[in-house]
Amino acid sequence: MSLKRTSSSNAPKSSELMPNDTCPSTRIAEAIAAPKLPSLFVADLHLSDKRPQTAAAFLGFLSGPVRQAGSVFILGDLFDSWAGDDDIDSDFNRSVCDALGAATSAGTAIYFMLGNRDLLAGKGFAQATGVQLLDDMASIRLGARSLLLSHGDILCTDDHEYQAFRQQVRNREWQAEFLAKPLEARRKFIETAREQSEAAKRGKRAEIMDVNADTVANLLRSHGYPVLIHGHTHRAARHAYLIDGHRCERYVLPDWHDQAVWLAFDGNEFSVHSGGEPK
User: Fold this and answer.
1) Domain 4-278, second-level architecture
2) I need a labelling partner for 253 at 20 to 30 A (CA). Which of 58, 127, 148, 261 fits?
3) pTM of the prediction?
4) Domain range summary for the chain, segments of one domain joined by +
């Protein structure tokens, strides 16, 4: 599988970013000074017991390519849903967490960023798996390259309804109140919310659910023109920009369908792999 390549000779026009929690520039945190190479990047696996082939692909990914990597970045939506860290004891979730723990115990550094489907993963998940939690967004340095990592939903600023929902469910007080409910009640709420979200998507124009070009351009400009890597939109591509005379790249990670797909960086160049073969 390959990333679709798109390019633009000029940067999008500058515009104001969304205020408060929907403004990416207020959420940057220097996460790691120098992760080991090669580095692998994945997102949007949406693991569940209803998708056994995808789950098997992830287990193979952990026991194969991950063991040869210096660092791995999971940029959200590893799980299709995560109702809280007490959800770890279901047979399926436990099997995934045990496999992650085996990979980190073998020496690979695995970093995990919350997505919109697994935003309730926390310290319990990190302790059970050995992964290191990342803020959205996270700034890292790989060799001579500066990277900015995000799940990606914060960039979809044209979808005002979604951004309002995102701000609500990432509020700590809302989360504390929600996590105080019984586990089964949380699972039912999440399932209902997912059904409502899918119904809402059918009534929205496709471009509204993609990243906002001005938001991306302002983000790259204000943080020194890094390489931006994110998921969420399920629109795998490499985008090239010329912003203020600086050449910039944005990689959109693919979602998984029955096979492993990842972006790799070896210190010199990026490459896309699926099923163990570079594309």
Assistant:
1) 4-Layer Sandwich (3.60)
2) 127
3) 0.88
4) 4-278
